[in-house]
Amino acid sequence: MKIALIAHDKKKDEMVALSKKFEKLLSKHELFATGTTGLQIQEATDLSVYRFKSGPLGGDQQIGARVSEGEVDMIIFLRDPLTAQPHEPDVTALIRLSDVYEIPLATNKSTAMLLFKELENLAEI
Fold first, then answer.
1. Is 92 among the annotated ligand-binding positions?
2. Is 29 known as a binding-site position?
3. pTM given for the model
4. Residue 123 predicted with pLDDT over 90
5. Of 74, 56, 104, 57, which Cα lies nearest the Cα of 5?
6. Integer CA distances (angstroms), 52 to 19, 32, 43, 119, in order
7. CA 102 to CA 81: how far, in whole Å?
8. pLDDT digits over 30-88, tens only?
């Protein structure tokens, strides 16, 4: 699968922790991420991550374009709902595209863990 990983600043540590916890699983998939999130994942794991621009510089839109082209199968987007984001319209557009193209999207750690555990279950079949 092609999995996009995105995290707002206050959620990057959570994304890194998730990536470490599910590193073996994620290593079997093609990973994409916004710039800083991808860099932090690469620094903390042995995962290969294709990095787009950072979110505020268009990374969310780049991933959205991949969604519209059928090149993303799942999105883990750890959002910070308590901090205003200058690129909120881009975030909303990405969420809308995931709904339009029926791409599984997790916006918090608990949902991300459920999606990753389901991927593990599918791998066992």
1. no
2. no
3. 0.94
4. no
5. 74
6. 18, 7, 16, 24
7. 23
8. 999 999 999 999 999 999 999 999 988 889 999 999 999 999 999 999 998 888 877 78
E-state strands within 1-125 = 2-7, 30-33, 49-51, 74-78, 105-106
Q: Is the pLDDT of residue 104 over 90?
A: yes
* 54 labeled part of a ligand binding site: yes
Residue 110, annotated as binding a ligand: no
Asked if 25 and 119 count as a contact pair (C-beta separation under 8 A), the reply is yes
Kindly report, residue by residue over 18-42, the tens digit of the pLDDT: 999 999 999 999 999 999 999 999 9
70 marked among binding-site residues: no
Q: CA–CA distance from 15 to each of 21, 36, 69, 79, 123 (Å)?
A: 10, 11, 25, 10, 22
User: In order of start, what are the domains of the chain with their CATH numbers?
Assistant: 2-124 (3.40.50.1380)
Active site positions, annotated: 60
